[in-house]
Amino acid sequence: MAYDDELADRIREVVHEEPGMSEKRMFGGLAFLVHGNLAVSASSQGGLLLRIDPAQAESLVNQQHVRRFEMRG
Questions:
Q1: pLDDT 10s digits, 17-50
Q2: H or E element: which one contains 59?
Q3: What are phi and psi for residue 30, nearest 5 degrees?
Q4: What Å distances lie between residue 17 and 2, 12, 20, 43, 56, CA to CA?
Q5: Rounded distance, CA 33 to CA 26, Å?
Q6: Which among 28, 31, 40, 54 could bridge 44 via Cys, Cβ 3.0 to 4.6 Å?
């Protein structure tokens, strides 16, 4: 499954002025990187992959439609 083009366009609208922003196809999705570090991605599995502060992880995954991303699993 390819990433959602509409979602990618919505991400672009939000991040386009971020200094050091670039796009790269990764893991079948489209990743948005800040100075080479993954920040957010339109996932190939559907949905949004978002890098967050680990200290906020527990409170965020308790929200509806939110789950942890697992590499290779």
A1: 999 999 999 888 999 999 999 999 998 888 899 9
A2: helix 57-61
A3: -120, 115
A4: 25, 9, 9, 22, 25
A5: 11
A6: 28
Neighbour order of strands in the sheet with 48-50: 21-26, 29-34, 37-42, 48-50
Q: Taking the complete model, does pTM exceed 0.90, yes or no?
A: no
Distance CA 63, CA 11 (A): 21
Alpha carbon distance 25, 1 (integer Å): 13
Domain residue limits, the chain: 5-61
Which amino acid, residue 12? R
Q: Which amino acid is at 16?
A: H
pLDDT digits (tens, 9 = 90+) for 3-19: 999 999 999 999 999 99
